[in-house]
TrEMBL record:
Name this polypeptide is given: Integral membrane protein
Organism: Streptomyces sviceus (strain ATCC 29083 / DSM 924 / JCM 4929 / NBRC 13980 / NCIMB 11184 / NRRL 5439 / UC 5370)
Transmembrane segments: 53-75, 95-120, 141-164, 184-209, 216-234, 267-288
Keywords recorded for this protein, A-Z: Membrane, Transmembrane, Transmembrane helix
Region named Disordered: 1-26
Classification lineage: Bacteria, Bacillati, Actinomycetota, Actinomycetes, Kitasatosporales
């Protein structure tokens, strides 16, 4: 178009108005807060923390180390000797229980990681920036759980498989020796990863609910380790009825190779422990939605 024509069609102030007025529809679409974007931000925050790498590494290392040691030091008459007692209802009488001896220690590591991922933002004040960017709040909680759960699931499943394979030569010739193809072995090793992933989500829920790293870690340790011991003070009839439903006892049933007479089945244990985690997440969601940060 000739320059003279432009001069005829444009009036003073037209160029300034066009440059100063962005399309509101384009602006809203570009910066809209969506679930995927909140998830990506939580993913970036998770991997940017040095504590995430360290704690995950410690969890897998403890899982492999104690599993391999328990398998190589196994003796038919020494299952109740020194060292951490395997859980899962089988009393360390099979190769899977021995390989998963380190689950208790790994559960503390991933649980603490979940607490730090959530409560750490309250201690640093970063939660205010997070909730300013995500005013609906609840997507923050769901995204934290959705990030840490699958990561812990995959890494601890690999750790459980490594512990079993590394310990297999130590059990060569023993009656309890098993291979990956035997009935229930893969289910037990996979169940350990599922249990640890739920523990990590449980830690996130406690962190948001309590908003204090020290307080949430104390509750985590008390729930997973101390509560089953304190329950022995209950009358026998009440203890027998309740103790399979404690969080750690129900969780240990998930990865047990054989169901004992006083424990839940793997499916029932998973349902009960997932129920405890869901209940805690519900409490965390309610407090996150209704309380100031």
């Amino acid at each position: 178009m000739p320059t003279s024509a432009l001069r005829r069609t444009q009036r003073p102030g037209d160029l300034a108005d066009l440059s100063a007025a962005p399309d509101p529809r384009t602006s809203t679409t570009r910066y809209k807060v969506t679930g995927i974007r909140v998830l990506r931000s939580e993913w970036a925050k998770f991997w940017s923390l040095r504590s995430s790498w360290i704690t995950l590494g410690v969890a897998v290392f403890l899982l492999v180390l104690f599993g391999a040691i328990a398998s190589y030091t196994y003796g038919p008459g020494a299952t109740t000797g020194r060292g951490p007692r395997p859980r899962g209802g089988s009393g360390g009488s099979d190769a899977v229980s021995l390989a998963l001896t380190g689950v208790t220690f790994a559960s503390l590591a991933v649980g603490v990681l979940g607490v730090l991922l959530a409560a750490g933002e309250y201690s640093t004040g970063m939660i205010r920036s997070t909730l300013t960017a995500v005013p609906r709040r609840l997507p923050v909680l769901w995204s934290k759980a959705a990030v840490i759960g699958p990561i812990v699931l995959v890494l601890t499943m690999i750790g459980a498989l490594a512990a079993f394979q590394l310990g297999a030569p130590g059990l060569d010739g023993e009656k309890i020796a098993l291979s990956l193809g035997d009935d229930g072995v893969l289910r037990g090793l996979t169940g350990a990863g599922v249990y640890l992933a739920l523990v990590a989500v449980f830690g996130v829920a406690l962190g948001v609910l309590v908003r204090s790293s020290a307080g949430a870690i104390a509750i985590l340790v008390g729930t997973l380790l101390i509560l089953p011991g304190l329950a022995t003070l209950l009358p026998d009839s009440l203890y027998d009825s309740l103790h399979p439903y404690f969080p750690s006892n129900a969780g240990s049933a998930v990865y047990a190779l054989h169901q004992s007479s006083d424990s839940l089945s793997p499916g029932a244990g998973l349902a009960v422990f997932a129920g405890w985690v869901a209940l805690t997440l519900g409490g965390a969601a309610y407090r996150l939605r209704t309380s100031d940060s």
